[in-house]
Amino acid sequence: MRFMMIVIPKGYESAAPNAAPSAEAVAKMMEYNRSLQKAGVLLALDGLRPPSTGARISYTDGKATVTDGPFAEAKEVIGGYWIIQVRSREEAIEWARRAPMANNEIIEVRQIQEMSDFPEDIQKAAEGFENLTNTSAVKA
Amino acid sequence: MSKIHQTIEAVWKIESTRLIAGIARVTRDVGLAEELAQDALVAALEQWPEEGIPEKPAAWLMTAAKRRAIDYLRRGQMLDQKHGEIAREVEFQQQQLSDALDNALDQVIDDDVLRLIFIACHPVLAIEGRVALTLRLISGLTTAEIARAFLVPEKTLGQRIFRAKRTLSEAHVPFETPRGDELRRRVESVLSVVYLIFNEGYTATSGEEWMRVALCEDALRLGRILVELLPAESEIHGLLALMELQASRTAARRGRDGQAILLLEQDRSLWDYAQIRRGMTALEQAKKLGGGAGNYALQAAIAACHARARTPQETNWEQIVLLYDALLQISPSPIVVLNRAVAVGMERGPAAGLAELDTLTAEPALAGYHLLPSIRGDLLIKLGRFTEAREEIQRAIDMTQNSREKELLMDRLERMPKTHS
Fold first, then answer.
1. Which residues in chain B have Cβ-Cβ distances shorter than 8 Å to A140?
2. More confident call, B367 vs A64
3. Does some domain include residue B246?
4. Which of residues 328-347 of B touch A (CB under 8 A)?
5. B79 alpha carbon, distance to own chain's centre
6. Which pLDDT belongs to residue A138?
7. Is residue B12 part of a domain?
């Protein structure tokens, strides 16, 4: 089963557009990433630029409204994620416990929804849809 | 199982390999190392529910294992003392062992893990023993979990592991990384064990389910671990590519009721394209290392041909036949001839496929192999020779042990036009 470990860094909601972690923090994080890789559990990972460089699109009655970052009202924003393949929710939690996070930072662990989790009518509705990630890779 | 026990089990799955590898570096005996680690697990199961999960669980487990190791040494030396050993010497050895284990924990090096893998897959062991030990030592599965995965009684599996450990100890297999030609040979043994685990999950040879996904995931995890440990070995990348590409079809291979769906009938939008991408990357890496013509890399290249085709009609069968030709060059086997015949049938028509296939009918290695009559039956259906086809499919039904595959074949039998025979 796959899990996403979502990083929610304190204060990232108001971080400057060019904010970057310290070299020391990056080194620690790389060491952790290596441990995931060596254990054979790491599938993907990414860090996200600060929300001040992003935008939020909200929808009311089918109408989309765009708000540029930063998002002053947001209490928690996402800073990055890992996707890991493990055998249980507990194992995902144990991996999250080992991450080198700073004070008050949060990692949220969530299992990735598989199509087979859905009831039959929903699976049917999704049937035959082109997989959205089905683009560049397979042409190689 | 209580929550704390589930957590302990998760910690064990994460830490056990490095723990056993570290202890084995000191004891030079994998069986003993595993026992000591198991003792540490028992201690954790006793103490953690009351004291909570320690801050550094790996260090805790190693300390517990160390305590058992010293007990073990002491017991051994009690016997020695009868032969006049002096007490100070005993104390010195205990201190040495304790220091060595402390050291081993401080830095379990990747080589320790690699050595552990090579030992678990040692050619001196029977293949079932290699599989069981690998899942136990490297994947951190319990005996019960392995037994469930392979549908054998837990007791049988326990004996299998016990025998394997005894064989290793009797053969005095050294705890070291093989070199040179020996390395190549031993890597092959490791890869065959990993692929066997994958295949047992991918097309379960017996039982109610068509796939046992967890076993495939365990094999993939082993493949990823190996790629990190031996990044220069092209065939490891080739095997990883093959497993990723095959596993990418998991969701499409099972119908809603668990029935089997074959490659050309699958809904390709259900394939996992992120996984295909990982497979393609691994295959590129194998080629970059000069291993494009390796056994696993060629099989991966064939799987890649399917992965690239958005519809079955787009499949480049010509390329697939060429890849099978190359595969026959390096590892001629009746199974490869069989698969090549299918590809020839797709490229040049069922009569050509059948001609290829019929070179195999006298092949003793395929006697009892259900895919031979099953494929032959398919080709005969396409040629409209239904009476013969019916006989072949029936033979295949009688041969397969997997009930899902049986269903699939029965269905084919039913869908065939009725003939007068």
1. 280, 284, 308
2. A64
3. no
4. none
5. 42
6. 41
7. yes
A5: enclosing H helix or E strand: strand A2-8
From the number of C-beta atoms within 10 Å of its C-beta (0-12, 13-18, 19+), residue B37 rates as buried
Taking the C-alpha atoms of residue B242 and residue B322, their distance in angstroms, rounded to an integer, is 17
- Rounded to 10 degrees, the C-alpha dihedral A78/A81/A87/A92 comes to -50
| pLDDT of the residue at B105 | 66
With contact defined as beta carbons under 8 Å apart, do A14 and A72 qualify? Answer: yes
And the tokens for A22?
A: 């310290």
Low-confidence residues in chain B, pLDDT < 50: 421
Task: Name the average pLDDT for chain A.
Answer: 86
The answer to whether A2 and A110 are in contact (CB under 8 A) is no
**Nearest-by-Cβ selection for B274 from A115, A128, A133:** A133
- What tens digit of pLDDT does each residue of A20-55 get? 888 999 999 999 999 999 999 999 999 999 999 999
Token pair 């519809």 is at which residue?
B311
CA B27 → CA B75, B97, B103, B110, B165, distances in Å?
A: 15, 9, 13, 17, 14
Q: Give dist(CA B33, CA B368) in Å, integer.
A: 42
User: Which of B257, B250, B141, B120 has its CA nearest to residue B191?
Assistant: B120
Check pLDDT > 70 for residue A140. Answer: no
Selected for mutation to probe chain A from B1, B18, B224 (highest A CB count within 10 Å) is B224
Rounded to the nearest 5°, which phi and psi values hold at A34? -60, -40
* Residues of B in Cβ contact (< 8 Å) with A90: 6-7, 9-10
Q: Is residue B322 part of a domain?
A: no
Place of tokens 């072949």: B392
Domain assignment of residue B284, yes or no: no
Half-sphere exposure (Cβ direction) of A95: Cα atoms closer than 13 Å:
34
- How many structural domains are present in chain B? 1
Nearest CA in chain B to A119: B256
Amino acid A132: pLDDT: 47
Structural domain containing residue B76: 1-108
DSSP assignment letter at B208: S
| CB-based contact A137 B13, cutoff 8 Å | no
Q: Domains of chain A (ranges plus CATH)?
A: 2-139 (3.30.70.1060)
pLDDT band at A135 (very low <50, low <70, confident <90, very high): very low
The complex's ipTM works out to 0.83
CA angle at residue B331 from B326 to B334, to 5 degrees?
Answer: 100
Q: Do the Cβ atoms of B320 and B341 come closer than 8 Å?
A: no
B387: Cβ contacts below 8 Å, ≥ 6 apart: B419, B421
Q: Does residue B271 contact residue B249 with C-beta atoms inside 8 Å?
A: yes
Q: Given this model, what pLDDT does residue B401 score?
A: 81
Q: Which of B109, B110, B217, B243 is the best substitution to test chain A (most A C-beta atoms within 10 A)?
A: B217
B180 residue type, one letter: G
